[in-house]
Amino acid sequence: MLDNQLLKIAQDFGSPVYVYDAKKIENQYKRLTSAFKNVKKLKINYAVKALSNISILKLLKSLGSGIDTVSIQEVQLGLAAGFSPEQIIFTPNGVSLDEIEEAAKLGVKINIDNLSILEQFGTKHPKVPVCIRINPHVMAGGNANISVGHIDSKFGISIHQIPHILRIVENTKMTINGIHMHTGSDILDIEVFLYASEILFDTAKQFKNLEFIDFGSGFKVPYKQGDIETNIEELGKKLSARFNDFCKSYGKDLTLAFEPGKFLVSESGSFLTKVNAVKQTTSTVFAQVDSGFNHLIRPMFYGSHHDIVNISNPKGRERFYTVVGYICETDTFGNNRRINEINEGDILSFKNAGAYCFSMASNYNSRFRPAEVLWHNNEAHLIRKRETFEDILNNQIEVDFSSKKETVLEK
Description:
Elements: H1 3-13, E1 17-21, H2 22-35, E2 42-47, H3 54-63, E3 66-69, H4 72-80, E4 88-90, H5 97-105, E5 109-112, H6 115-124, E6 130-135, E7 157-158, H7 162-172, E8 176-180, H8 190-204, E9 212-214, H9 232-250, E10 255-258, H10 262-265, E11 269-280, E12 285-289, H11 298-301, E13 308-310, E14 318-324, E15 332-340, E16 347-350, E17 371-376, E18 379-384, H12 389-393
Parallel strand pairs: 1-17, 2-3, 2-10, 3-4, 4-5, 5-6, 6-7, 6-8, 8-9, 9-10, 12-14
Antiparallel strand pairs: 1-11, 11-12, 11-16, 13-16, 14-15, 17-18
């Protein structure tokens, strides 16, 4: 999107506001499917947790995507968006057996990553096919908080526990229809990913009724100019050839599945904020905006980088600013950034704001969560209203402290 289009959205819908470019999402989806065009059966299941607005889900459904869900609420949201149960896979972690059974009743694909739950579910529901999430013990993600395939991770069943899985399957007579892994986000080296894939192939050989192999996702997108990203085209070429060879040896054309979230929506998003004040201290110039980590927590939580652009003054002289929010704690978006000269009232755009930004927003400091806008066919569509004070009070129940009871003293 162009800066003048973003400025117009800020003027029309106010700030702070999240804006998503539908064309970018579509291009990323097509880029991924094109990279794996040599696979007979490919299924992209968008990771709902990245950005769960129902209009985004409907957009991805129109492109042919399924969805990957991690909670029963995401399953229900997917059904509300029009996905059929077979287009939804449920991949929770640490949830109760009751929640898994609730998802199974809805008819969605089930993915289990716990030996105890696997045995309980298989004993009670041996006729319901189940996918198994394997932990390959491979460190392939970026930040430790988003690397989920290493040996100390809470996710997945260890590859060293495959004999336990086989024993449970034999005892319960349950059907395993898929094998899954997710090594973590921000994959830098595709050779590490391919190494983990070989572990998955070796595991898959031991299950005779598979319908699909799910390789997770975690593909890295660039966060700033010159940043590295996962080479999807090279990965597609190498993994497709290996997957096709495996299918020949397996004797059946399986579905190759991915569950991208950030890859599809991150670059589509811009977060627009207004500069409330420019504050000079003895050592720093702060640009203070009308938002905080209540709306965009990733820089404080992960140390993530979001390019910050002054779209009100794109040709101004560059100066150094530390961009901070209005929360009564440290909430630095960017430290000592080189940005075109900022004046109070300017609109700053935070890039790569499509994934894990609004979805992690809160009402901390009793602030309203922002509006969301989808830019589609050269038109801005409001897809979520800005919250109001009534929303803050919603579901709160007031206690009446006005009535006073007389105290009776014992004689």
